Amino acid sequence: MTDTIITVAPTGAFPTKDHNPNIPLTPREIADDVFECWQAGAAVAHLHMRDEAGHGTMDKHRFIETVGLIRERCDIVLNLTTSGDLLATDEDRLAHLIEIKPELASFDAGSMNWMHSTVFINHPAFLERLAAVMNDNGVKPEIEVFDPGMFYTANYYMKKGVLHWPSYFQFVLGAAGGIAATVENLVFLKSLLPPEAIWSAFGIGAGHLPILLATLALGGHVRVGMEDNVFYAKGRLAMNNAEFVARATRLVQESGRTVANPASARRILDLAVK
Ligand code: ZN
Fold first, then answer.
1. Cα 25 to ligand 1 centroid, rounded to whole Å
2. Would residue 120 count as lying in a domain?
3. Ligand 1 centroid to residue 12 C-alpha, Å
4. Within 10 Å of residue 180's Cβ, how many Cβ atoms?
């Protein structure tokens, strides 16, 4: 049977307690939430940090504290964001990778107009540097693709030898400014990949469930969590991230697959044992 990796993205950079009072923001809240998600079947946790005021921050000390609390309790694979604060410097976006050397980190393969309100900048010079820091520190890039152009940007870096096959892609559908969260778009994005690519996908907001179901149908790995969607169902806020993971676990099993544990996720993603 094929293992399916469930990634949980519990926090993100933007949702607040006003959007959903159950979203975990502090290191302790995030660690407790991730532990419950690991128990429910998540093999990977994609983490963002918040400052005392609840704003997205790249403060490496928040990452170190949270990672320490999670590591006391479970072996979930850690995937740290490199874009948790649009005002952060390039140095701020790299410091935690050098310090923590996580197994995975996000590589956002291009810039975009973000949510019709600001610009999410990933300068070519930054992307080359990011790839080099990841290589030097044994961090595998999770290549985040918000529109098809980002796939071709990643492909360019493959050809240049900056990124390497077989790679791991995360398709993000439904972020305003990027490709819309439709099943047709997901089929198209998946068709761009060579057969050896490992891939996962998720939809933002209302696109969450259709993309989850279609990703399972297409044989991809999945991601759930309040970074992407704070509603468990229309009009019903999620109580925690674990209930998203529990639903994904049920859907994976009903689709005839098995849920990857962290050890099998490490094998699938070819992560160096640390
Ligand atoms: Zn993220």
1. 14
2. yes
3. 5
4. 14
* C-alpha 11 – ligand 1 centre gap (Å): 8
pLDDT for res 166: 82
Residue 254 within a domain: yes
In-domain check, residue 213: yes
Region label for 81, one of left (φ > 0), alpha (ψ between -120 and 50) or beta (otherwise): beta
Report CA(251)–ligand 1 centroid distance (Å). 23
CA of 257 to the centre of ligand 1 (A): 26
User: To 5 degrees, how large is the angle CA 231–CA 233–CA 238?
Assistant: 40
Residue 225 backbone dihedrals phi, psi, to 5 degrees: 135, 165
Looking up residue 196, the CATH number of its domain turns out to be 3.20.20.70
Question: What local confidence, expressed as pLDDT, does residue 1 receive?
Answer: 55
107 is a domain residue = yes
Cβ pair 96, 124 in contact under 8 A: no
HEC states along 82-144? CCCCCCCCHHHHHHHHHHHCCCEEEEECCCEEECCCEEECCCHHHHHHHHHHHHHHCCEEEEE
Q: 16: CA distance to ligand 1 center in Å?
A: 14
Gap from CA of 156 to ligand 1 centroid (Å): 23
- Going from the first residue of the chain to its last (274 residues), give the mean pLDDT of each consecutive group of 10, the final group possibly shorter: 92 96 98 98 98 97 98 98 94 98 98 94 97 97 98 96 92 97 98 94 96 98 98 97 98 97 96 71
> Count of domains in the chain?
1
Q: What pLDDT does 273 receive?
A: 64
Q: How far apart are the CA of 138 and the centre of ligand 1, in A?
A: 20
Residues 6+ apart with CB under 8 A from 271: 77, 103, 104, 140, 265
Query: 110 lies in which domain range?
Result: 3-269
